[in-house]
């Protein structure tokens, strides 16, 4: 049984990673978006380092949030279109593990690259080097929560293919992540204790890992009949 | 009453505009919350009535068809 | 035997017909009680209660703002819990209540936001301040919008009900987290602005009308919820024979 459970996780993780790596063009789009919007900010506001570094902690988080949101829609829609989701739903195994596998794959493909790219934006916006590590840690944990919550929205909006509705459903739920994520970076910039907000992000992740798969599997079953 | 006159109650030392506009907006929204379901109910009732009539006329048409059948 | 007896009320409670006929009798009384409570509370609060020492008469907006906020927040829980009851026991009526609760909750949240903004002008000198409570209310409004918007995307009523229930449950878990995190965020950024008068520190002469208004708003909420649910029942149960009888017997009833 235990083997079966982890097997579902591994199989779907592997499968989704393969699919993602096969069309790398799609893979890089959210990352390009992340960088492009960042370029717009100095042009729209001001190129002064003091102004940019003041808004950078929040901005990096808003960008990460939008990039995740852009990509989460496709988490289930392709499986839904080609019928493999149906197969997953009628299989006797628990849905949790395949779902967690798919979400882990999504995080590896979106959240992790965003985290690794974020120092570029930090340098563009003249964030102090000392804030890099807290920023990357907060993004690594936070984007995982964003993927989990986003997947709930993706499952519920499956019959209509997500879109603006998905953003409307999910964004209010993203607020705590946004608050604690940008607070982590801000605290590091100000030389304060950044472990506290980071710990809150970790707590959110723990809660999300337990509860989101429940909502996602319920949502997928409903969407199948909707 | 705390206020000496109706005029004072309306003006509330310059704060009247804030208090009374909040009151007016809340009243409009809350009346809307009562009126809307009543209208929905009326619309639903009409819809059902229409359906019953439609069914009745369909049935009548069927019956005349059956009655007409031997003639043709 | 005993078991059966105990559960019949539960199933009757879940029957739209039973609900429709019972509430027919309750409605006039509930409407009178609501009106009496709201009028008493408002006249008391607006004309008789003493003004706040710092905020003067603008403080009287509390008699609309606080009850609307309290009931709007409770309304989200009412919506989510009726959704959960519907999911667990497969009760149609419960889903109808959930659907009815969404627009009422959104409207009350809207009232809380608008009155809060108007109150902000004389208190803080600006219509909008990113105060923790107002920010949380704004997020709550978007949570309500999400539930309403999700409904319209499903063509199948049953699936729409279930999806709405799942979303409101997810929201219900999130609401306290959102409130706490926004609170925390606020202490981080805005130390000590003038707070809207909180209940515990209030003078009894100011507090009593507030209690009347809160009860009045709850009563108003139940009234609106019942009215919306009755319309929903007629819309969905149009095939049921008792609904048809209702329409043909008394077409004058409006």
Count structural domains of chain B. Answer: 1
- On the 0 to 100 scale, the average pLDDT of chain A is 88
Question: How does the helix and strand content of chain A classify structurally?
Answer: mainly alpha
Radius of gyration of chain B: 29 Å
Q: Quick one: overall form of chain B?
A: rod-shaped
Strand content of chain A: under 5%
The overall average pLDDT of chain B, rounded, is 86
DSSP, total strands of chain B: 0
Give the low-pLDDT segments of chain B. none
| Spatial gap, N to C terminus of chain A | 32 Å
For the structure shown, list the relevant keywords.
heterotrimer; A: about 230 residues; mainly alpha; 9 helices; about 85% helix; elongated; B: about 70 residues; 2 helices; about 80% helix
Concise overview:
The complex is a heterotrimer of chains A (226), B (72) and C (254). Chain A has helices spanning 2-22, 24-44, 49-72, 74-82, 84-90, 96-124, 132-156, 164-189, 195-225. With 226 residues, chain A is mostly helical.
Describe the structure.
- The complex is a heterotrimer of chains A (226), B (72) and C (254).
- Chain A is mostly helical.
- Chain A has one domain (2-225).
- Chain A has 9 helices and no strands.
- Chain A has helices at residues 2-22, 24-44, 49-72, 74-82, 84-90, 96-124, 132-156, 164-189, 195-225.
- Chain A is elongated, with a radius of gyration of 18 Å.
- The model of chain A has no long low-confidence stretch (mean pLDDT 88).
- Chain B has helices spanning 6-11, 16-68.
- Chain C is built from 8 helices and no strands.
- Chain C is globular, with a radius of gyration of 21 Å.
- Chain C is mainly α.
- Chain C has one domain: Four Helix Bundle (Hemerythrin (Met), subunit A).
- Helix content of chain C is 79%, strand content 0%.
- Chains in contact: A-C, B-C.
């Amino acid at each position: 049984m235990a083997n079966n459970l982890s097997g579902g996780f591994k199989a779907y993780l592997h499968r989704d990673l393969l699919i993602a790596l096969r069309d790398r063009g799609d893979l890089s789009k959210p990352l390009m978006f992340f960088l492009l919007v960042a370029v717009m900010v100095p042009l729209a506001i001001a190129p002064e380092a003091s102004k940019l570094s003041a808004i950078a902690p929040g901005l990096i988080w808003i960008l990460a949030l939008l990039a995740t949101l852009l990509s989460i829609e496709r988490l289930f829609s392709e499986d839904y279109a080609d019928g493999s989701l149906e197969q997953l739903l009628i299989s006797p195994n628990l849905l949790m593990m395949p779902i967690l596998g798919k979400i882990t794959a999504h995080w590896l493909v979106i959240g992790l690259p965003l985290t690794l790219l974020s120092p570029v934006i930090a340098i563009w916006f003249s964030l102090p080097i000392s804030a890099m590590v807290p920023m990357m840690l907060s993004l690594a944990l936070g984007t995982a929560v964003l993927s989990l919550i986003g997947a709930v929205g993706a499952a519920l909006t499956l019959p209509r293919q997500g879109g603006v509705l998905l953003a409307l459903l999910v964004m209010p739920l993203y607020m705590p992540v946004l608050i604690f994520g940008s607070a982590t970076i801000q605290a590091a910039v100000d030389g304060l204790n950044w472990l506290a907000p980071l710990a809150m992000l970790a707590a959110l992740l723990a809660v999300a890992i337990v509860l989101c798969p429940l909502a996602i599997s319920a949502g997928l079953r409903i969407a199948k009949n909707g | 009453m705390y206020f000496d006159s109706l005029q004072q109650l309306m003006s509330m030392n310059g704060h009247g505009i804030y208090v009374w506009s909040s009151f007016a907006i809340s009243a409009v929204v809350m009346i809307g919350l009562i009126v809307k379901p009543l209208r929905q109910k009326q619309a639903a009732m009409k819809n059902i009535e229409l359906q019953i009539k439609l069914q009745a006329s369909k049935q009548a048409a069927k019956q005349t068809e059956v009655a007409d059948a031997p003639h043709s | 035997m005993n078991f059966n007896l105990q559960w019949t009320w539960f199933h009757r409670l879940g029957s739209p017909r039973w609900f429709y006929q019972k509430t027919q009798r309750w409605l006039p009384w509930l409407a009178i009680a609501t009106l009496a409570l709201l009028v008493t509370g408002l006249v008391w609060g607006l004309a008789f209660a003493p003004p706040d020492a710092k905020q003067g008469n603008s403080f009287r907006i509390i008699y609309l703002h606080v009850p609307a906020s309290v009931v709007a927040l409770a309304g989200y829980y009412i919506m989510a819990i009726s959704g959960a009851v519907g999911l667990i026991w497969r009760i149609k009526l419960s889903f109808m209540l959930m659907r009815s609760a969404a627009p009422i909750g959104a409207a009350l949240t809207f009232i809380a936001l608008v009155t809060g903004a108007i109150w902000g002008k004389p208190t803080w000198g600006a219509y909008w301040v990113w105060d923790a409570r107002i920010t949380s209310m704004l997020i709550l409004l978007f949570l309500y919008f999400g539930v309403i918007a999700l409904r319209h995307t499903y063509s199948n009523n049953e699936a729409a009900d279930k999806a709405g229930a799942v979303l409101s449950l997810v929201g219900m878990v999130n609401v306290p987290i959102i409130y706490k995190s926004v609170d925390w965020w606020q202490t981080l950024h805005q130390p000590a602005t003038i707070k809207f008068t909180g209940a515990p520190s209030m003078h009894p002469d100011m507090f009593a009308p507030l209690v009347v208004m809160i009860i009045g708003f709850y009563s108003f909420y139940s009234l609106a919820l019942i009215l919306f649910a009755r319309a929903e029942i007629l819309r969905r149960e149009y095939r049921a024979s008792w609904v048809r009888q209702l329409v043909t017997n008394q077409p004058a009833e409006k």
